[in-house]
Amino acid sequence: LSTGPLTGVRVTLTAGPTREALDPVRYISNHSSGKMGYALAQAFTDAGAQVRLISGPVNLPAPAVDALVQVNSAQEMLAAALADPGDCFVGAAAVADYRPATVADQKIKKQGDAIDDMTLALVRNPDIIAQVAMSRPKPYMVGFAAETQALLSYARDKLVRKKLDLVIANDVSRPDAGFNVDTNTVTLVDQHGDKALPSQSKTSLARELVNEIAQRYQAHAKK
Ligand code: C5P
Predict the structure, then answer these.
(1) Is 40 in the pocket of ligand 1 (CB under 6 A)?
(2) Which fold has domain 10-100+121-222?
(3) Mean pLDDT of 94-116
(4) Helix, strand, or coil (residue 74)
(5) Residues 52-56: what's their mean pLDDT?
(6) Distance of alpha carbon 195 from alpha carbon 114, whole angstroms
């Protein structure tokens, strides 16, 4: 039986990319590996939390979680998130900002040889974490900010605009941080200030982040 700092706390976590279908054989997506989210899922479980992992398509072994919900699109991820946002919600997924306006029933065919251009109509996807932040009772909300410039000001803007309790800011222009690498360098941004953590493996960072989140969650839950 677990006796970690988050024993009995229900954590819902999104991870990985989303895939936005264009037709039965094509999609729009991104390079998210899901590594950070999966490492967090494992670390939350190790801390005693009851973890519900909502995952986009990744090439990773399933971590030891209470429930693994596999989704493809942002709309599916949103529905899964709202179905059970938990006591603490962590949005680690790299959700596609836009999706094709229509999904063709059949494979889209090439135009004739005389036509070289093709225009794709896209529409905005829902902001999953912002929608979960509007659900009641509101979970303790943790989001990520992956930026290549003005990291801390964008992170603080996200904290306020999406009504989050904590933003984990990630400078993805660094060679030792972000997508598809095994290390990460982050700064925690919340209403009390900023806290930079040393660059380290995603596994060890996940453990440190879960401790930081657990402390803040307990303080928040007492209020
Ligand atoms: O606005 P931006 O995408 O940079 O915000 C990143 C944070 O918001 C991450 O925590 C990400 O998981 C979440 N997000 C989301 N739904 C979206 C876009 C981002 O949950 N459509």
Answers:
(1) no
(2) Rossmann fold (3.40.50)
(3) 94
(4) helix
(5) 98
(6) 57
Q: Is 202 annotated to bind ligand?
A: no
Residue closest by Cα to atom 5 of ligand 1:
145
- The Å distance, Cα 97 to ligand 1 centre, comes to 8
Strands (E), 60-116: 67-70, 88-91, 98-100
- Tens digit of each residue's pLDDT (9 = 90 or more) over 162-201: 999 999 999 888 877 766 678 889 999 999 999 999 999 9
Rounded (10°) angle between helices 35-46 and 202-222: 60
Average pLDDT value for residue range 127-146: 97
Which residues does the annotation mark as catalytic? 30
- Please write the tens of the pLDDT for every residue from 13-53: 999 999 999 999 999 999 999 999 999 999 999 999 999 99
**Full-model pTM:** 0.95
CA of 209 to the centre of ligand 1 (A): 18
158 is in an annotated binding site: yes
Domain boundaries, the chain: 10-100+121-222
- Contacts with 166 (C-beta within 8 Å, 6 or more apart), sequence order: 140, 141, 142, 143, 159, 188, 189, 190, 213, 216
CA 111–ligand 1 middle distance (angstroms): 35
Integer Cα distance of 92 and 17 in angstroms = 9
Q: What tokens does 52 get?
A: 């519900």
